[in-house]
């Protein structure tokens, strides 16, 4: 039981992990993080919010390499879960008021410069946060 790798990429605490069916990819999602800023002239402490709005797909054969980035709007302290279908080619996640679907095998939907996957389908679910899709 020893550490074999440390994967760095999220700013907030990791709240959801899912391993691919072939055990070669790891998907991770995180929650937002707060950072304190002190001012010299005021007594108050200001909190700045960094929203960790990405699901990262890690290549476990090459530790540290991020294969895909899925961006989502997470304006809440709730955990925002995601799920992957049985064929392991579609990832679904909640967003502010949307449910979005991403094709994990379609390189055409990826922006090659920054590896961001774009959704191939989405729908408005309701007028509140969507924090889980199953």
Task: Give an account of the 3D structure.
It is built from no helices and twelve strands. It is mostly beta strands. The protein has one domain (about 15-125). A hairpin with a 3-residue loop joins strand 8 (about 90-95) and strand 9. This is WD repeat-containing protein 79.
Please name the defining characteristics of this protein:
134 residues, 6-stranded mixed sheet, globular, mainly beta, WD40_rpt
Question: How is the secondary structure organized here?
Answer:
Layout: E1 14-19, E2 25-30, E3 33-38, E4 45-50, E5 54-59, E6 66-71, E7 82-84, E8 90-94, E9 98-103, E10 110-111, E11 116-117, E12 121-124
Parallel strand pairs: 6-11
Antiparallel strand pairs: 1-2, 2-5, 3-4, 5-6, 7-8, 8-9, 9-12, 10-11
The helicity comes to: under 10%
Q: What low-confidence regions span 5 or more consecutive residues with pLDDT below 50?
A: 41-49
The assigned structural class equals: mainly beta
In round numbers, the mean pLDDT is 78
Alpha carbon gyration radius: 17 Å
What is the rounded distance between the termini? 32 Å
Order of helices and strands: EEEEEEEEEEEE
Residue share in β-strands? 35-45%
Helix segment count? 0
Short description:
The protein is mostly beta strands and 134 residues long. The chain has strands at 14-19, 25-30, 33-38, 45-50, 54-59, 66-71, 82-84, 90-94, 98-103, 110-111, 116-117, 121-124.
């Amino acid at each position: 039981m020893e550490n074999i790798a440390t994967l760095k990429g999220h700013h907030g605490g990791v709240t959801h992990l899912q391993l691919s069916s072939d055990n070669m990819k790891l998907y991770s999602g995180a929650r937002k993080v707060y950072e304190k800023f002190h001012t010299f002239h005021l007594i108050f402490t200001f909190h700045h919010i960094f929203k960790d709005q990405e699901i990262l797909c890690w290549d476990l054969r090459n530790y540290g390499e991020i294969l895909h980035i899925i961006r989502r709007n997470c304006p809440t302290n709730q955990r925002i879960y995601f799920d992957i279908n049985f064929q392991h080619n579609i990832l679904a996640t909640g967003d502010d008021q949307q449910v979005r679907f991403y094709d994990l095998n379609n390189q055409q939907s990826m922006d090659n410069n920054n590896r961001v996957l774009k959704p191939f389908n989405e729908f408005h679910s309701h007028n509140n946060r969507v924090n889980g899709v199953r």
